Amino acid sequence: MDNKKLRSTGFIFAAVFIGGFLINLVSDIGKHGFIWSTTNPYQLAQLAICAVFIVSALVRPLYILQPIVFLVFSPVSIIQSTRNIYGLGFFIMGILLLERTGFYAKHRLPKLLLSLIYLLAIEIVGVVRSGKSPIEASAPTFFIVAFGVFLWFLYKDRLVVILKEPKPKLSLAEKGLSTAERAFIGQTLAGKSQKEISIDFELSESTVRNTLARAYKKLDVEDRVGLAVLGERFEINAD
Question: Within 10 Å of residue 204's Cβ, how many Cβ atoms?
Fold first, then answer.
């Protein structure tokens, strides 16, 4: 979870919604008076959302409220009008914020599929409620699906990498490896032999060999082959 950026986005979105409140206030106060302009449901909703973003920025466990706000508002906008781009924009911001919170770190593909099903379900409800002909009302949904298929074929290789679930991280420091052990493990993972490591660090091969043996024991592997297998299973942090 990127705490610093989520804290910043909380304050940024709070500023955006308070800005919207003030713009509407200036626009409506001459027509409807101060009380109505500050207490109508739309204005109160903007203030409430602003408060939610401020709280989410200040309280770390509540960062998740940021994507929830956008994912809740996306169906409201889409159902009102299937041609409304605001709803799709809210949905995209919600998904990006979910990614930032680490929601997609595990079981990424199923969660992304559920997110798309959620969007399509909203679109279908909007089509049913619109009262228009099925072909006319479902046009936005069709183009969303078509655009998604287009992106898949255009960026398939990159999307496969994005959809691939990341490896769990393994910290060598937390495993109790010394600075030298971590350095030698990092060099070994990079493909260097004990002789090459000894030359680089100006040490004897026996020193490198003994240091690696201690590191292997702490990592519960037998040799560099076992280390390579460990590297396939985990993202190893040698720092």
Answer: 10
Looking at residue 156, what is its pLDDT?
61
3-state secondary structure (DSSP) of residue 171 = strand
Query: Rounded CA gap, 110 and 113, in Å?
Result: 5
Where b means 16+ CB within 10 Å and e means fewer, 110-131 reads ebbeebeebbeebbeebbeebe
Q: Among residues 105, 110, 73, which one has the least CA distance to residue 89?
A: 73
CB-based contacts of 156, cutoff 8 Å, min separation 6: none
Spell out, as residue ranges, where the chain has pLDDT lower than 50. Answer: none
DSSP for residue 103: T
Crossing angle for the helix pair 224-233 and 179-189, to the nearest 10 degrees: 80
Residue ranges of domains in the chain:
1-62, 64-165, 169-237
Sign, CA dihedral 51-66-23-36, equals: negative
Query: What pLDDT, on a 0 to 100 scale, did the predictor assign at position 204?
Result: 93
Output the pLDDT for position 164.
62
On the 0-12 / 13-18 / 19+ scale of CB atoms within 10 A, 160 is exposed
Cα dihedral: 221, 226, 228, 234 (round 10): -50
**What is the identity of the amino acid at 48?**
A
Q: How far is 72 from 135, CA to CA, in rounded Å?
A: 26
Q: Write the CATH number of the domain with boundaries 169-237.
A: 1.10.10.10
pLDDT at 140: 64
